[in-house]
């Protein structure tokens, strides 16, 4: 599953917000949430996902960039595993708000 929009659910550290500033014709902007385009965003997000799913890694899922690959031998097991992973993501998003 593609979890690219997950980046937008991760708040930036307050002391890092100013470092993300960019200027365009409409004014000066800063990222308040993690952006896929930031240099360190991909490894930081991948670490975050792996920490949330640490006990499931290699058993039911793998992460590559912004993709979470859930694997199973049959459909019913796959649905159970997807539910496990999605519940962890939901808990992470709820706790960060």
From TrEMBL:
Source species of the chain: Phytophthora cactorum
Domain Reverse transcriptase: 1-90
Keyword terms: Membrane, Transmembrane, Transmembrane helix
InterPro entries per UniProt: DNA/RNA_pol_sf, Rev_trsase/Diguanyl_cyclase, RNA-dir_DNA_polymerase, RT_dom
PANTHER family: REVERSE TRANSCRIPTASE DOMAIN-CONTAINING PROTEIN, TRANSPOSON TY3-I GAG-POL POLYPROTEIN
Transmembrane segments: 20-42
Protein origin, superkingdom: Eukaryota
Protein name in the entry: Reverse transcriptase domain-containing protein
């Amino acid at each position: 599953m593609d979890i690219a929009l997950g980046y937008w659910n991760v708040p930036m550290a307050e002391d890092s917000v100013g470092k993300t500033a960019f200027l365009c014709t409409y004014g000066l902007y800063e990222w308040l949430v993690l952006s896929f385009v930031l240099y360190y965003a991909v490894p930081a997000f991948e670490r975050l996902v792996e920490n949330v799913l640490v006990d499931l890694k290699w058993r039911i899922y793998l992460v590559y960039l912004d993709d979470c690959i859930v694997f199973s031998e049959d459909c019913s097991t796959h649905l159970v595993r997807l539910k496990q992973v999605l519940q962890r993501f939901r808990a992470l998003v709820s706790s960060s708000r």
